[in-house]
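User: Show me an example of a complex going from sequences to C-alpha coordinates.

Assistant: Sure. Here are the input components:
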Amino acid sequence: MTRFPRSHPRYRSLVIRARLADALRTGLVVPEGLIAHGRAEAFDYLLGERTSASASKAIQAAARWLVVARFPVISVNGNVAALAGPEIAELVRALPTLSVEVNLFHRTPGRAARVAARLRAAGVSQVLGLHPTVRVPGLPSDRGLVDRRGIARADVVLVPLEDGDRTQALRRIGKRVIAIDLNPLSRTSVAADIPVVDELGRALGRLAREVRAERRRPQRRSYPAFDGAAARADALATINRRLATALDRRGSRAAPAPPRTRPARRRR
Amino acid sequence: MTRFPRSHPRYRSLVIRARLADALRTGLVVPEGLIAHGRAEAFDYLLGERTSASASKAIQAAARWLVVARFPVISVNGNVAALAGPEIAELVRALPTLSVEVNLFHRTPGRAARVAARLRAAGVSQVLGLHPTVRVPGLPSDRGLVDRRGIARADVVLVPLEDGDRTQALRRIGKRVIAIDLNPLSRTSVAADIPVVDELGRALGRLAREVRAERRRPQRRSYPAFDGAAARADALATINRRLATALDRRGSRAAPAPPRTRPARRRR
Protein backbone atom coordinates (compact mmCIF):
# COMPACT_ATOMS: atom_id res chain seq x y z
CA MET A 1 0.00 0.00 0.00
CA THR A 2 1.41 3.37 -1.04
CA ARG A 3 2.33 5.61 1.89
CA PHE A 4 1.15 9.20 1.90
CA PRO A 5 2.74 12.17 3.59
CA ARG A 6 0.58 13.08 6.60
CA SER A 7 0.98 16.66 5.49
CA HIS A 8 -1.13 15.98 2.36
CA PRO A 9 -4.27 18.15 2.57
CA ARG A 10 -6.46 15.17 1.65
CA TYR A 11 -4.64 12.64 3.82
CA ARG A 12 -7.82 11.07 5.24
CA SER A 13 -9.41 10.62 1.83
CA LEU A 14 -6.20 9.09 0.53
CA VAL A 15 -6.18 6.53 3.34
CA ILE A 16 -9.85 5.57 2.80
CA ARG A 17 -9.14 5.23 -0.90
CA ALA A 18 -6.17 2.99 -0.19
CA ARG A 19 -8.44 0.84 2.01
CA LEU A 20 -10.91 0.40 -0.85
CA ALA A 21 -8.02 -0.38 -3.16
CA ASP A 22 -7.03 -3.16 -0.77
CA ALA A 23 -10.62 -4.46 -0.75
CA LEU A 24 -10.32 -4.57 -4.52
CA ARG A 25 -7.21 -6.73 -4.32
CA THR A 26 -9.02 -9.25 -2.12
CA GLY A 27 -12.02 -9.34 -4.48
CA LEU A 28 -14.48 -7.80 -2.05
CA VAL A 29 -14.91 -4.70 -4.18
CA VAL A 30 -15.07 -4.54 -7.99
CA PRO A 31 -13.34 -1.84 -10.06
CA GLU A 32 -16.68 -0.21 -10.84
CA GLY A 33 -17.20 0.09 -7.09
CA LEU A 34 -14.13 2.30 -6.81
CA ILE A 35 -15.50 4.60 -9.50
CA ALA A 36 -18.80 4.78 -7.64
CA HIS A 37 -16.87 5.70 -4.49
CA GLY A 38 -15.18 8.54 -6.36
CA ARG A 39 -18.56 9.92 -7.43
CA ALA A 40 -19.78 9.76 -3.86
CA GLU A 41 -16.59 11.51 -2.67
CA ALA A 42 -17.25 14.40 -5.03
CA PHE A 43 -20.77 14.89 -3.71
CA ASP A 44 -19.62 14.60 -0.11
CA TYR A 45 -17.00 17.25 -0.81
CA LEU A 46 -19.68 19.52 -2.29
CA LEU A 47 -21.96 18.89 0.69
CA GLY A 48 -19.19 19.85 3.12
CA GLU A 49 -18.34 16.34 4.39
CA ARG A 50 -20.82 16.57 7.25
CA THR A 51 -24.37 15.38 7.99
CA SER A 52 -26.75 18.25 7.17
CA ALA A 53 -29.76 19.13 9.32
CA SER A 54 -31.96 17.78 6.55
CA ALA A 55 -30.06 14.48 6.29
CA SER A 56 -30.33 14.23 10.03
CA LYS A 57 -34.14 14.49 9.77
CA ALA A 58 -34.16 11.84 7.04
CA ILE A 59 -32.14 9.52 9.28
CA GLN A 60 -34.64 10.09 12.09
CA ALA A 61 -37.54 9.19 9.79
CA ALA A 62 -35.61 6.14 8.55
CA ALA A 63 -35.12 4.98 12.13
CA ARG A 64 -38.88 5.23 12.73
CA TRP A 65 -39.70 3.27 9.62
CA LEU A 66 -37.20 0.55 10.48
CA VAL A 67 -38.65 0.21 13.99
CA VAL A 68 -42.26 0.10 12.69
CA ALA A 69 -41.41 -2.45 9.99
CA ARG A 70 -42.20 -6.11 10.40
CA PHE A 71 -39.42 -7.41 8.15
CA PRO A 72 -36.82 -4.71 7.68
CA VAL A 73 -33.85 -5.70 5.52
CA ILE A 74 -30.57 -3.95 4.74
CA SER A 75 -29.14 -4.72 1.31
CA VAL A 76 -25.32 -4.93 1.30
CA ASN A 77 -22.96 -4.77 -1.68
CA GLY A 78 -19.17 -4.96 -1.84
CA ASN A 79 -18.49 -1.26 -1.21
CA VAL A 80 -20.88 -1.20 1.73
CA ALA A 81 -19.22 -4.25 3.29
CA ALA A 82 -15.74 -2.83 2.74
CA LEU A 83 -16.59 0.61 4.11
CA ALA A 84 -19.07 -0.07 6.89
CA GLY A 85 -19.03 -3.66 8.22
CA PRO A 86 -18.85 -2.59 11.91
CA GLU A 87 -21.60 0.03 11.44
CA ILE A 88 -23.92 -2.63 9.98
CA ALA A 89 -23.22 -4.96 12.90
CA GLU A 90 -24.01 -2.10 15.28
CA LEU A 91 -27.29 -1.39 13.45
CA VAL A 92 -28.32 -5.05 13.80
CA ARG A 93 -27.52 -4.91 17.52
CA ALA A 94 -29.71 -1.81 17.78
CA LEU A 95 -32.53 -3.49 15.81
CA PRO A 96 -32.46 -7.30 16.06
CA THR A 97 -35.40 -7.65 13.61
CA LEU A 98 -33.19 -6.27 10.84
CA SER A 99 -32.06 -8.87 8.29
CA VAL A 100 -28.85 -8.40 6.34
CA GLU A 101 -28.85 -9.51 2.70
CA VAL A 102 -25.95 -9.57 0.26
CA ASN A 103 -26.98 -7.92 -3.01
CA LEU A 104 -24.41 -7.49 -5.72
CA PHE A 105 -24.69 -5.57 -8.97
CA HIS A 106 -21.73 -7.63 -10.22
CA ARG A 107 -22.57 -10.98 -8.66
CA THR A 108 -20.40 -14.08 -8.56
CA PRO A 109 -20.76 -16.77 -5.91
CA GLY A 110 -17.19 -16.03 -4.75
CA ARG A 111 -17.86 -12.33 -4.22
CA ALA A 112 -21.13 -12.99 -2.42
CA ALA A 113 -19.23 -15.32 -0.07
CA ARG A 114 -16.50 -12.70 0.49
CA VAL A 115 -19.06 -10.02 1.33
CA ALA A 116 -20.76 -12.40 3.77
CA ALA A 117 -17.42 -13.31 5.34
CA ARG A 118 -16.56 -9.63 5.83
CA LEU A 119 -19.95 -9.02 7.48
CA ARG A 120 -19.55 -12.03 9.76
CA ALA A 121 -16.06 -10.90 10.72
CA ALA A 122 -17.57 -7.53 11.65
CA GLY A 123 -20.08 -9.24 13.95
CA VAL A 124 -23.17 -9.90 11.80
CA SER A 125 -24.27 -13.43 12.70
CA GLN A 126 -26.84 -14.15 9.96
CA VAL A 127 -26.28 -13.13 6.36
CA LEU A 128 -28.93 -13.76 3.69
CA GLY A 129 -28.64 -13.55 -0.09
CA LEU A 130 -26.02 -16.20 -0.71
CA HIS A 131 -28.54 -18.35 -2.60
CA PRO A 132 -31.21 -15.95 -3.81
CA THR A 133 -34.12 -17.65 -5.56
CA VAL A 134 -36.89 -15.05 -5.93
CA ARG A 135 -36.89 -12.82 -8.98
CA VAL A 136 -37.83 -9.12 -8.80
CA PRO A 137 -39.69 -8.30 -12.03
CA GLY A 138 -38.15 -5.77 -14.40
CA LEU A 139 -34.50 -6.46 -13.62
CA PRO A 140 -32.47 -8.30 -16.25
CA SER A 141 -30.13 -11.23 -15.50
CA ASP A 142 -29.18 -12.19 -11.96
CA ARG A 143 -29.48 -8.61 -10.74
CA GLY A 144 -33.13 -9.36 -10.07
CA LEU A 145 -32.53 -12.24 -7.66
CA VAL A 146 -33.29 -11.76 -3.98
CA ASP A 147 -33.56 -14.00 -0.93
CA ARG A 148 -37.04 -15.34 -0.17
CA ARG A 149 -36.36 -14.93 3.57
CA GLY A 150 -35.02 -11.40 3.07
CA ILE A 151 -35.85 -8.70 0.51
CA ALA A 152 -38.57 -10.89 -1.09
CA ARG A 153 -40.72 -10.67 2.03
CA ALA A 154 -39.42 -7.34 3.41
CA ASP A 155 -41.75 -4.43 4.03
CA VAL A 156 -38.92 -1.89 4.43
CA VAL A 157 -35.64 -2.18 2.55
CA LEU A 158 -32.62 -0.05 3.39
CA VAL A 159 -30.43 0.30 0.30
CA PRO A 160 -27.09 2.02 0.83
CA LEU A 161 -25.26 2.90 -2.42
CA GLU A 162 -27.76 1.16 -4.67
CA ASP A 163 -28.18 1.17 -8.45
CA GLY A 164 -31.13 3.22 -9.71
CA ASP A 165 -32.74 0.35 -11.65
CA ARG A 166 -32.88 -1.83 -8.59
CA THR A 167 -34.23 0.87 -6.33
CA GLN A 168 -37.00 1.60 -8.82
CA ALA A 169 -37.80 -2.12 -9.14
CA LEU A 170 -38.13 -2.44 -5.35
CA ARG A 171 -40.57 0.47 -5.35
CA ARG A 172 -42.58 -1.10 -8.16
CA ILE A 173 -43.17 -4.25 -6.14
CA GLY A 174 -44.43 -2.16 -3.23
CA LYS A 175 -41.44 -2.08 -0.92
CA ARG A 176 -40.84 0.95 1.25
CA VAL A 177 -37.32 2.03 0.34
CA ILE A 178 -34.82 3.98 2.42
CA ALA A 179 -31.72 4.94 0.43
CA ILE A 180 -28.35 6.22 1.56
CA ASP A 181 -26.85 8.04 -1.43
CA LEU A 182 -24.77 11.20 -1.58
CA ASN A 183 -26.14 12.25 -4.97
CA PRO A 184 -29.48 13.98 -4.41
CA LEU A 185 -30.21 13.75 -8.15
CA SER A 186 -29.52 10.02 -8.56
CA ARG A 187 -32.35 7.76 -9.65
CA THR A 188 -31.96 5.95 -6.35
CA SER A 189 -32.45 9.16 -4.34
CA VAL A 190 -35.40 10.16 -6.54
CA ALA A 191 -37.08 6.74 -6.32
CA ALA A 192 -36.57 6.16 -2.59
CA ASP A 193 -39.31 6.99 -0.09
CA ILE A 194 -36.66 8.29 2.28
CA PRO A 195 -33.47 9.45 0.55
CA VAL A 196 -30.74 9.92 3.14
CA VAL A 197 -28.25 12.21 1.39
CA ASP A 198 -25.21 11.52 3.53
CA GLU A 199 -21.98 9.58 3.66
CA LEU A 200 -22.46 5.88 4.40
CA GLY A 201 -20.44 5.53 7.61
CA ARG A 202 -21.74 8.74 9.14
CA ALA A 203 -25.35 7.91 8.23
CA LEU A 204 -25.28 4.32 9.52
CA GLY A 205 -23.67 5.34 12.82
CA ARG A 206 -26.30 7.98 13.38
CA LEU A 207 -29.08 5.64 12.24
CA ALA A 208 -28.15 3.06 14.89
CA ARG A 209 -28.30 5.73 17.60
CA GLU A 210 -31.68 6.98 16.33
CA VAL A 211 -33.05 3.42 16.21
CA ARG A 212 -32.09 2.88 19.86
CA ALA A 213 -33.72 6.20 20.81
CA GLU A 214 -36.85 5.36 18.82
CA ARG A 215 -37.22 1.97 20.51
CA ARG A 216 -37.29 3.69 23.88
CA ARG A 217 -40.22 5.89 22.80
CA PRO A 218 -43.93 4.84 22.82
CA GLN A 219 -44.29 2.56 19.86
CA ARG A 220 -45.88 3.68 16.58
CA ARG A 221 -48.06 1.51 14.42
CA SER A 222 -47.84 3.34 11.15
CA TYR A 223 -45.14 4.87 9.03
CA PRO A 224 -44.82 8.61 9.55
CA ALA A 225 -44.90 10.51 6.26
CA PHE A 226 -41.63 11.76 4.80
CA ASP A 227 -41.14 14.35 2.05
CA GLY A 228 -38.29 12.93 -0.01
CA ALA A 229 -38.46 15.66 -2.64
CA ALA A 230 -37.96 18.31 0.05
CA ALA A 231 -34.99 16.41 1.48
CA ARG A 232 -33.34 16.26 -1.93
CA ALA A 233 -34.11 19.90 -2.59
CA ASP A 234 -32.45 20.78 0.68
CA ALA A 235 -29.29 18.86 -0.27
CA LEU A 236 -29.17 20.66 -3.62
CA ALA A 237 -29.60 23.99 -1.84
CA THR A 238 -26.70 23.09 0.49
CA ILE A 239 -24.44 22.39 -2.48
CA ASN A 240 -25.52 25.62 -4.15
CA ARG A 241 -24.79 27.63 -1.04
CA ARG A 242 -21.38 26.05 -0.61
CA LEU A 243 -20.45 26.62 -4.23
CA ALA A 244 -21.46 30.26 -3.96
CA THR A 245 -19.27 30.64 -0.87
CA ALA A 246 -16.36 28.84 -2.52
CA LEU A 247 -16.77 31.13 -5.47
CA ASP A 248 -16.45 34.21 -3.27
CA ARG A 249 -13.59 32.79 -1.27
CA ARG A 250 -11.40 31.05 -3.81
CA GLY A 251 -12.26 33.10 -6.86
CA SER A 252 -10.30 36.00 -5.43
CA ARG A 253 -7.55 33.87 -3.94
CA ALA A 254 -5.90 32.41 -7.02
CA ALA A 255 -2.17 32.10 -6.43
CA PRO A 256 -0.29 35.14 -7.69
CA ALA A 257 1.85 34.40 -10.72
CA PRO A 258 5.39 33.45 -9.73
CA PRO A 259 8.33 34.96 -11.59
CA ARG A 260 8.83 33.22 -14.91
CA THR A 261 12.16 31.51 -15.28
CA ARG A 262 11.99 31.15 -19.01
CA PRO A 263 10.44 33.77 -21.21
CA ALA A 264 9.21 32.47 -24.54
CA ARG A 265 12.00 32.81 -27.04
CA ARG A 266 10.60 30.88 -29.90
CA ARG A 267 9.56 32.49 -33.15
CA ARG A 268 10.80 35.96 -32.40
CA MET B 1 -16.15 -7.86 -18.68
CA THR B 2 -19.69 -7.55 -17.37
CA ARG B 3 -22.29 -6.91 -20.06
CA PHE B 4 -24.79 -4.13 -19.57
CA PRO B 5 -28.27 -3.85 -21.00
CA ARG B 6 -28.19 -1.17 -23.73
CA SER B 7 -31.40 0.10 -22.22
CA HIS B 8 -29.55 1.23 -19.07
CA PRO B 9 -29.86 5.04 -18.80
CA ARG B 10 -26.13 5.36 -18.06
CA TYR B 11 -25.01 2.81 -20.65
CA ARG B 12 -22.18 4.97 -22.03
CA SER B 13 -20.75 5.71 -18.59
CA LEU B 14 -20.92 2.03 -17.72
CA VAL B 15 -18.93 1.10 -20.83
CA ILE B 16 -16.23 3.75 -20.14
CA ARG B 17 -16.02 2.52 -16.56
CA ALA B 18 -15.62 -1.05 -17.76
CA ARG B 19 -12.78 0.13 -20.02
CA LEU B 20 -10.97 1.70 -17.08
CA ALA B 21 -11.59 -1.47 -15.09
CA ASP B 22 -9.84 -3.39 -17.88
CA ALA B 23 -6.93 -0.91 -17.78
CA LEU B 24 -6.72 -1.69 -14.08
CA ARG B 25 -6.43 -5.40 -14.76
CA THR B 26 -3.50 -4.81 -17.13
CA GLY B 27 -1.77 -2.55 -14.59
CA LEU B 28 -2.04 0.63 -16.65
CA VAL B 29 -4.34 2.25 -14.13
CA VAL B 30 -4.14 2.01 -10.31
CA PRO B 31 -7.19 1.58 -8.05
CA GLU B 32 -6.87 5.18 -6.84
CA GLY B 33 -7.13 6.23 -10.49
CA LEU B 34 -10.58 4.66 -10.72
CA ILE B 35 -11.71 6.65 -7.68
CA ALA B 36 -10.36 9.82 -9.26
CA HIS B 37 -12.34 8.98 -12.41
CA GLY B 38 -15.48 8.69 -10.31
CA ARG B 39 -14.92 12.16 -8.86
CA ALA B 40 -14.44 13.56 -12.33
CA GLU B 41 -17.61 11.82 -13.51
CA ALA B 42 -19.62 13.51 -10.76
CA PHE B 43 -18.37 16.95 -11.78
CA ASP B 44 -18.96 16.26 -15.46
CA TYR B 45 -22.51 15.21 -14.62
CA LEU B 46 -23.01 18.45 -12.68
CA LEU B 47 -21.55 20.48 -15.55
CA GLY B 48 -23.94 18.86 -18.03
CA GLU B 49 -21.42 16.57 -19.78
CA ARG B 50 -20.57 19.18 -22.39
CA THR B 51 -17.83 21.74 -23.04
CA SER B 52 -19.07 25.08 -21.71
CA ALA B 53 -18.49 28.39 -23.52
CA SER B 54 -16.02 29.29 -20.79
CA ALA B 55 -14.09 26.00 -21.06
CA SER B 56 -14.01 26.57 -24.78
CA LYS B 57 -12.32 29.95 -24.23
CA ALA B 58 -9.82 28.34 -21.85
CA ILE B 59 -8.99 25.74 -24.50
CA GLN B 60 -8.44 28.52 -27.03
CA ALA B 61 -6.04 30.31 -24.66
CA ALA B 62 -4.29 27.00 -23.94
CA ALA B 63 -3.79 26.45 -27.67
CA ARG B 64 -2.19 29.90 -27.96
CA TRP B 65 0.16 29.26 -25.06
CA LEU B 66 1.20 25.88 -26.43
CA VAL B 67 1.96 27.40 -29.84
CA VAL B 68 3.95 30.30 -28.31
CA ALA B 69 5.93 27.98 -26.00
CA ARG B 70 9.46 26.94 -26.81
CA PHE B 71 9.36 23.62 -24.93
CA PRO B 72 5.74 22.64 -24.32
CA VAL B 73 5.27 19.32 -22.51
CA ILE B 74 2.18 17.25 -21.75
CA SER B 75 2.38 15.21 -18.55
CA VAL B 76 0.65 11.81 -18.84
CA ASN B 77 -0.45 9.49 -16.03
CA GLY B 78 -2.17 6.10 -16.16
CA ASN B 79 -5.74 7.38 -16.39
CA VAL B 80 -4.82 9.84 -19.12
CA ALA B 81 -3.10 7.11 -21.15
CA ALA B 82 -6.05 4.74 -20.66
CA LEU B 83 -8.69 7.32 -21.56
CA ALA B 84 -7.06 9.48 -24.21
CA GLY B 85 -4.09 7.84 -25.97
CA PRO B 86 -5.35 8.65 -29.50
CA GLU B 87 -6.21 12.25 -28.51
CA ILE B 88 -2.64 12.79 -27.24
CA ALA B 89 -1.19 11.39 -30.47
CA GLU B 90 -3.44 13.76 -32.40
CA LEU B 91 -2.30 16.72 -30.29
CA VAL B 92 1.36 15.87 -31.01
CA ARG B 93 0.57 15.70 -34.74
CA ALA B 94 -1.04 19.13 -34.46
CA LEU B 95 1.98 20.52 -32.51
CA PRO B 96 5.21 18.63 -33.24
CA THR B 97 7.15 20.70 -30.65
CA LEU B 98 5.05 19.11 -27.89
CA SER B 99 6.93 16.56 -25.77
CA VAL B 100 5.06 13.78 -24.01
CA GLU B 101 6.28 12.79 -20.53
CA VAL B 102 5.05 9.96 -18.33
CA ASN B 103 4.38 11.25 -14.82
CA LEU B 104 2.91 8.90 -12.28
CA PHE B 105 1.61 9.68 -8.81
CA HIS B 106 2.01 5.98 -8.01
CA ARG B 107 5.22 5.25 -9.91
CA THR B 108 6.80 1.88 -10.54
CA PRO B 109 9.11 1.20 -13.47
CA GLY B 110 6.60 -1.38 -14.77
CA ARG B 111 3.71 1.07 -14.78
CA ALA B 112 5.78 3.79 -16.42
CA ALA B 113 6.68 1.31 -19.16
CA ARG B 114 3.02 0.29 -19.59
CA VAL B 115 1.91 3.92 -19.92
CA ALA B 116 4.66 4.51 -22.50
CA ALA B 117 3.65 1.38 -24.39
CA ARG B 118 0.03 2.50 -24.50
CA LEU B 119 1.06 5.91 -25.81
CA ARG B 120 3.30 4.39 -28.49
CA ALA B 121 0.51 2.04 -29.53
CA ALA B 122 -1.71 5.11 -29.93
CA GLY B 123 0.86 6.72 -32.25
CA VAL B 124 3.13 8.81 -30.00
CA SER B 125 6.66 8.14 -31.24
CA GLN B 126 8.76 9.67 -28.44
CA VAL B 127 7.84 9.25 -24.78
CA LEU B 128 9.91 10.91 -22.03
CA GLY B 129 9.85 10.31 -18.28
CA LEU B 130 10.87 6.67 -18.18
CA HIS B 131 14.12 7.55 -16.39
CA PRO B 132 13.45 10.88 -14.70
CA THR B 133 16.52 12.36 -12.98
CA VAL B 134 15.67 15.97 -12.11
CA ARG B 135 13.97 16.70 -8.82
CA VAL B 136 11.23 19.34 -8.48
CA PRO B 137 11.68 20.94 -5.05
CA GLY B 138 8.91 20.54 -2.49
CA LEU B 139 7.62 17.16 -3.63
CA PRO B 140 8.37 14.17 -1.38
CA SER B 141 9.66 10.82 -2.67
CA ASP B 142 9.80 9.97 -6.35
CA ARG B 143 6.77 12.14 -7.08
CA GLY B 144 9.17 15.01 -7.58
CA LEU B 145 11.19 13.37 -10.37
CA VAL B 146 10.90 14.71 -13.90
CA ASP B 147 12.74 14.21 -17.16
CA ARG B 148 15.58 16.64 -17.84
CA ARG B 149 14.63 16.71 -21.54
CA GLY B 150 10.97 17.23 -20.68
CA ILE B 151 9.24 18.97 -17.78
CA ALA B 152 12.59 20.05 -16.27
CA ARG B 153 13.24 22.38 -19.20
CA ALA B 154 9.63 23.06 -20.23
CA ASP B 155 8.24 26.58 -20.31
CA VAL B 156 4.60 25.44 -20.61
CA VAL B 157 3.35 22.22 -19.02
CA LEU B 158 -0.07 20.76 -19.81
CA VAL B 159 -1.25 18.66 -16.85
CA PRO B 160 -4.43 16.68 -17.40
CA LEU B 161 -5.86 15.13 -14.20
CA GLU B 162 -2.95 16.19 -12.01
CA ASP B 163 -2.48 16.08 -8.23
CA GLY B 164 -2.70 19.48 -6.54
CA ASP B 165 0.72 19.24 -4.86
CA ARG B 166 2.47 18.65 -8.13
CA THR B 167 0.63 21.42 -9.95
CA GLN B 168 1.58 23.86 -7.20
CA ALA B 169 5.21 22.68 -7.28
CA LEU B 170 5.37 23.28 -11.05
CA ARG B 171 4.07 26.80 -10.54
CA ARG B 172 6.64 27.44 -7.79
CA ILE B 173 9.50 26.65 -10.15
CA GLY B 174 8.11 29.12 -12.64
CA LYS B 175 6.40 26.87 -15.16
CA ARG B 176 3.34 28.11 -16.96
CA VAL B 177 0.71 25.46 -16.20
CA ILE B 178 -2.38 24.52 -18.20
CA ALA B 179 -4.60 22.06 -16.31
CA ILE B 180 -7.49 19.91 -17.51
CA ASP B 181 -9.58 19.14 -14.45
CA LEU B 182 -13.35 18.87 -14.05
CA ASN B 183 -13.32 20.15 -10.47
CA PRO B 184 -13.19 23.96 -10.57
CA LEU B 185 -12.35 24.01 -6.83
CA SER B 186 -9.45 21.54 -6.94
CA ARG B 187 -6.02 22.77 -5.94
CA THR B 188 -4.88 21.93 -9.47
CA SER B 189 -7.55 24.17 -11.02
CA VAL B 190 -6.78 26.94 -8.53
CA ALA B 191 -3.01 26.74 -9.04
CA ALA B 192 -3.04 26.48 -12.84
CA ASP B 193 -2.55 29.55 -15.01
CA ILE B 194 -5.17 28.19 -17.39
CA PRO B 195 -7.64 25.81 -15.77
CA VAL B 196 -9.59 23.98 -18.46
CA VAL B 197 -12.69 22.73 -16.63
CA ASP B 198 -13.76 20.04 -19.05
CA GLU B 199 -13.71 16.31 -19.62
CA LEU B 200 -10.33 15.02 -20.78
CA GLY B 201 -11.26 13.48 -24.13
CA ARG B 202 -13.49 16.37 -25.19
CA ALA B 203 -10.91 18.96 -24.11
CA LEU B 204 -7.94 17.30 -25.83
CA GLY B 205 -9.86 16.80 -29.08
CA ARG B 206 -10.87 20.43 -29.15
CA LEU B 207 -7.38 21.56 -28.11
CA ALA B 208 -5.80 19.82 -31.11
CA ARG B 209 -8.22 21.59 -33.45
CA GLU B 210 -7.52 24.96 -31.80
CA VAL B 211 -3.76 24.40 -32.03
CA ARG B 212 -4.04 23.75 -35.77
CA ALA B 213 -6.15 26.89 -36.19
CA GLU B 214 -3.71 28.95 -34.10
CA ARG B 215 -0.74 27.80 -36.14
CA ARG B 216 -2.43 29.09 -39.29
CA ARG B 217 -2.75 32.57 -37.74
CA PRO B 218 0.01 35.25 -37.66
CA GLN B 219 2.38 34.09 -34.95
CA ARG B 220 2.40 35.64 -31.49
CA ARG B 221 5.53 36.24 -29.46
CA SER B 222 4.08 36.53 -26.01
CA TYR B 223 1.56 34.69 -23.91
CA PRO B 224 -1.87 36.30 -23.99
CA ALA B 225 -3.26 36.89 -20.48
CA PHE B 226 -5.87 34.50 -19.11
CA ASP B 227 -8.15 35.00 -16.12
CA GLY B 228 -8.19 31.59 -14.43
CA ALA B 229 -10.30 32.74 -11.49
CA ALA B 230 -13.01 33.95 -13.87
CA ALA B 231 -12.97 30.63 -15.72
CA ARG B 232 -13.41 28.71 -12.48
CA ALA B 233 -16.14 31.06 -11.31
CA ASP B 234 -17.96 30.46 -14.57
CA ALA B 235 -17.79 26.68 -14.08
CA LEU B 236 -19.19 27.03 -10.57
CA ALA B 237 -21.97 29.25 -11.87
CA THR B 238 -22.81 26.60 -14.50
CA ILE B 239 -23.10 23.94 -11.82
CA ASN B 240 -25.22 26.24 -9.68
CA ARG B 241 -27.56 26.98 -12.57
CA ARG B 242 -27.92 23.31 -13.43
CA LEU B 243 -28.62 22.35 -9.83
CA ALA B 244 -31.28 25.04 -9.58
CA THR B 245 -32.92 23.71 -12.75
CA ALA B 246 -32.70 20.13 -11.54
CA LEU B 247 -34.26 21.23 -8.31
CA ASP B 248 -37.24 22.74 -10.12
CA ARG B 249 -37.62 19.82 -12.47
CA ARG B 250 -37.02 16.77 -10.33
CA GLY B 251 -38.09 18.13 -6.99
CA SER B 252 -41.68 18.05 -8.15
CA ARG B 253 -41.37 14.81 -10.05
CA ALA B 254 -40.70 12.30 -7.30
CA ALA B 255 -42.30 8.97 -8.19
CA PRO B 256 -45.78 8.63 -6.73
CA ALA B 257 -45.98 6.05 -3.97
CA PRO B 258 -46.99 2.62 -5.29
CA PRO B 259 -49.62 0.56 -3.47
CA ARG B 260 -48.14 -1.12 -0.42
CA THR B 261 -48.25 -4.89 -0.40
CA ARG B 262 -47.65 -5.32 3.31
CA PRO B 263 -48.98 -2.94 5.90
CA ALA B 264 -46.97 -2.89 9.11
CA ARG B 265 -48.43 -5.40 11.49
CA ARG B 266 -45.78 -5.53 14.13
CA ARG B 267 -46.32 -4.37 17.72
CA ARG B 268 -50.00 -3.68 17.46
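The lines above are the inputs; the final block is the predicted structure for all two components together. Chain B has nine helices and eight strands.
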